[in-house]
Design brief:
The protein is of the alpha+beta class. The chain is built from 1 helix and 4 strands; from the N terminus they run ββαββ.
Amino acid sequence: MADTIEFVNGLIVKAPHENAPSFVKANISIKVVDLGQWLRERFKAGDEWVNVDVKESKGGKWYAAVSTFKPKEKQEQQAAPKAYGGNDDVPF
């Protein structure tokens, strides 16, 4: 099953112009009304943060998509080795 891409409404990403200096990595255009509305909807849905990935399509076009990365939950700390030969009566 392919993941569905959620585009960021009101945010346009383009590759830098061919004459741009090497430190310019992308061009981003923001349509304030559209992006503002999109962000308010995310906020109402309970999102405090929205992570965005800048990607390149197979056709070479750049775009901004909501990141779906979810870090793995931390495993519970492993039990510490028992001190003093396994004596469970040690108070610390």
